[in-house]
Design brief:
By secondary structure, this protein is an all-alpha fold. The protein is about 75% helix and about 0% strand. Helix 2 runs parallel beside helix 4 and helix 3 crosses helix 5.
Length: about 120
């Protein structure tokens, strides 16, 4: 059980919202239409991290995601230009929006996994 919590902790600290936007921006900037299965990778990440968070406290899940969001904002400020691609809302809003969707997805998966776990132990 400790190993799963350690894996969850490490995966939760990866700035996935920044990586999603960075890769998407690079694809659009280079006019390359190859999506690299970007959305599918994000969904798999949400499912994996959400399922691993089943035994973790909700405060820890939200806290680590806030840290990840702050890291994403910092990295976006360093590596992503705030230009036309993020119009009309801006780069920081895009990072926060993707992060919000990522966190909500994790919480939904965590809740569903918890319900399935309770059901299977009865």
């Amino acid at each position: 059980m400790k190993a799963l919590k350690s894996i969850w902790f490490i995966l939760s600290l990866i700035p996935v919202p920044f990586l999603f936007l960075y890769i998407e921006y690079q694809i659009k900037a280079t006019e390359n239409n190859d999506s690299l299965l970007l959305l599918e990778g994000l969904i798999i990440s949400v499912i994996a991290v959400g399922a691993l968070a089943v035994k973790s406290r909700i405060r820890a899940v939200i806290g680590l995601n806030i840290v990840s969001t702050l890291c994403s904002l910092l990295l976006a400020g360093l590596f992503l230009p705030d230009n036309w691609w993020f119009a009309p809302f801006g780069r920081n809003f895009a990072v926060i929006f993707v992060s919000f969707c990522y966190i909500m997805g994790q919480l939904v998966v965590r809740g569903a996994a918890k319900a399935l776990l309770k059901r299977s132990t009865k």
